[in-house]
Amino acid sequence: MLEVILYFIQQLINGITIGSTYALIAIGYTMVYGIIGMINFAHGEVYMIGTYVAFMAISGMAMLGVEFLPLIFLVALLSSMLVSSSFGWAIERIAYRPLRGGNRLIPLISAIGMSIFLQSYVRLGQGSRDIAMSSQISGGWSFGPEDGFQTSLSYIQVLIFIVTVISMTVLTLFISRSRMGRACRAVAQDLKMANLLGIDTNRVIASTFVIGAALAAVAGTLLGMYYGVVNVMVGFIAGLKAFTAAVLGGIGSIPGAMLGGIILGITESMTAAYFSTEYKDVVSFALLVLILLFKPTGLLGKPEVEKI
């Protein structure tokens, strides 16, 4: 009985670990949708670029002989956030701003084109093979009998929990307390009226893309260090899962994106543990369909009210 409980706790820890990073990526989707009502399908590639930059930064620090782990992690995180934020800003300027105000299908196609472009750009520059790196943060704690199954909690998992909580807290405070956060809420409520009241809506929308890209870079750095491998397709897979989490929690709701990411991560972990890894995506998407059947706006989403 004890082994069953410990095994369940282990899968719960694994699910929360993955779900936390899904939530960080999903926030980028939900913020952009909440502000301009469109989906940034190039967001997964921004996450992928952030992961590559983090790996490059870690490799560079290793070549310089730096062994102080907090410094290595900080440099990798800041480098990843800076480069990814720049790409997020460029995507908004190139793929969205010139097309804003027209048919909503056109920016969607433009974003898909940008996604393919970024994926091809990285493939040409870095190759399509997997890039592996030895774990920078090893070790952890084990709980349970020595002669039976033990629940393990690694240092990197604890780091993921801590960084995710800090990122979510900072974002929540930024949206609720800062001047730019109030402007974001005003633009999300009524873009045209916010523009009439003197809010620089272009700046607000660009900031939304930058913030979403920075959070995706945080997730990319954490997951890259957790798995120790990256390739050009990780953005497509993680982006699809994060978009699913955003829809599950309620697209346009930041708390919904957080909740959706955690639920999706736990669902995948439990399915892989108790059934088969091959069924984890089937169960996750079946859960999404089931929830949307009974609550079309997602768990914490609100019905869109047409403004007249």
TrEMBL record:
> Any idea which UniProt keywords this protein has?
Amino-acid transport, Cell inner membrane, Cell membrane, Membrane, Transmembrane, Transmembrane helix, Transport
Alphabetized InterPro entries for the sequence: ABC_transp_permease (IPR001851), BCAA_transport_permease (IPR052157)
The UniProt entry's GO CC annotations, sorted and at most eight, read:
plasma membrane
Give the membrane topology, semicolon-separated if more than one: Multi-pass membrane protein
Which residue ranges run through the membrane? 12-34, 46-65, 71-91, 103-122, 155-175, 204-226, 282-301
Q: Where in the cell is it found?
A: Cell inner membrane
Gene Ontology molecular function, alphabetical: L-isoleucine transmembrane transporter activity; L-leucine transmembrane transporter activity; L-phenylalanine transmembrane transporter activity; L-valine transmembrane transporter activity
Q: Which PANTHER family match?
A: BRANCHED-CHAIN AMINO ACID TRANSPORT SYSTEM PERMEASE PROTEIN LIVH, HIGH-AFFINITY BRANCHED-CHAIN AMINO ACID TRANSPORT SYSTEM PERMEASE PROTEIN LIVH
Protein name listed in UniProt:
Branched-chain amino acid ABC-type transport system, permease components
Organism per entry: Hahella chejuensis (strain KCTC 2396)
